[in-house]
């Protein structure tokens, strides 16, 4: 759909202006094409927004400016940012500010109206150790499924079925993430002097330390996007958000899409590998074909 709209806009501008210009070749047509995404069903629009905004954030992190260089080269700084994002997202999901996808499901909030039981935690297991171990086990299985799926996809593309290409990074990261989060949260629940409102955010923050062992800008860019969405949802009333079909994201999406497509064709090194995959999928390889034609003309 986006590819057809972009193609129609390109041809119309070419006919109206008499020739292609630097920004009328892709940027303006992509803006027109992306604007129609606001009319799509809510779920389809949300998926497209997630893909493009995440690709935009990751591409901006790879730019050759001093701040991006510092962030891209410092795993410690990336970890601190991810820890903050983790705390915001998990707290938002627990308080139901935002219901988007995240790698971890937060613990249920403690109900102040329920009288205290033998344990202070909100989970159903009587033993916190069992609760932590079960969480690690479940998320290890999820991570293993992700690693095997990635191995099958990459091996089928390369036609090389060597087990040396199989790694368990996602498995280790998810297991470490849920283990740290649940262990810290259960421990803090047993300390009455710690403010109740700080226990869960602190557990989410320390759980983000797991990023240090599996640093990926793709994960960091998604965490930044979801943290921004969580804070934005917190500041909007539920009634207003249901009435308004269109929001700021509908205005930012066409510009973000146009920026990525324009740079993907004109300066491919300015976009991430993930952006290239998303753009090819969004435009049905239309942008890549234009890039190849321009390369042949130069």
UniProtKB/TrEMBL annotation:
Alphabetically ordered keywords of this record: Membrane, Transmembrane, Transmembrane helix
Record flagged with keyword Transmembrane: yes
TM stretches of this protein: 20-40, 70-90
InterPro entries given in the database record: Tmem135
PANTHER family listed in its UniProt record: TRANSMEMBRANE PROTEIN 135, TRANSMEMBRANE PROTEIN 135-RELATED
Protein name: Uncharacterized protein, isoform A
């Amino acid at each position: 759909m986006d590819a057809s709209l972009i193609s129609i806009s390109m041809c119309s501008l070419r006919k109206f202006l008499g020739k292609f210009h630097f920004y009328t070749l892709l940027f303006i047509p992509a803006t027109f094409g992306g604007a129609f995404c606001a009319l799509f069903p809510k779920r389809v629009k949300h998926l497209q927004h997630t893909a493009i905004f995440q690709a935009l954030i990751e591409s901006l992190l790879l730019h050759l400016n001093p701040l991006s260089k510092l962030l891209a080269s410092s795993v410690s700084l990336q970890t601190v940012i991810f820890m903050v994002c983790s705390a915001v997202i998990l707290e938002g999901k627990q308080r139901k500010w935002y219901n988007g996808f995240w790698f971890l499901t937060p613990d249920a909030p403690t109900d102040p109206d329920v009288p205290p039981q033998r344990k202070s935690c909100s989970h159903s297991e009587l033993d916190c150790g069992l609760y932590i171990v079960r969480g690690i086990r479940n998320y290890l299985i999820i991570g293993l499924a992700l690693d095997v799926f990635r191995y099958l996809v990459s091996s089928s593309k390369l036609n090389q079925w060597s087990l040396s290409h199989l790694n368990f990074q996602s498995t280790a990261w998810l297991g470490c993430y849920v283990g740290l989060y649940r262990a810290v949260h259960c421990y803090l629940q047993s300390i009455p002097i710690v403010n109740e409102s700080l226990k869960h955010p602190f557990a989410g923050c320390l759980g983000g330390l797991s990023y240090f062992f599996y640093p990926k800008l793709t994960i960091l860019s998604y965490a930044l996007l979801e943290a921004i969405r969580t804070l934005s949802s917190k500041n909007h009333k539920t009634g207003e958000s249901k009435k308004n079909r269109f929001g700021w994201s509908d205005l930012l999406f066409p510009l973000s899409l146009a920026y990525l497509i324009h740079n993907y064709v004109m300066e491919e090194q300015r976009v991430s590998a993930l952006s290239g995959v998303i753009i090819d999928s969004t435009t049905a390889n239309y942008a890549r074909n234009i890039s190849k034609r321009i390369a042949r003309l130069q």
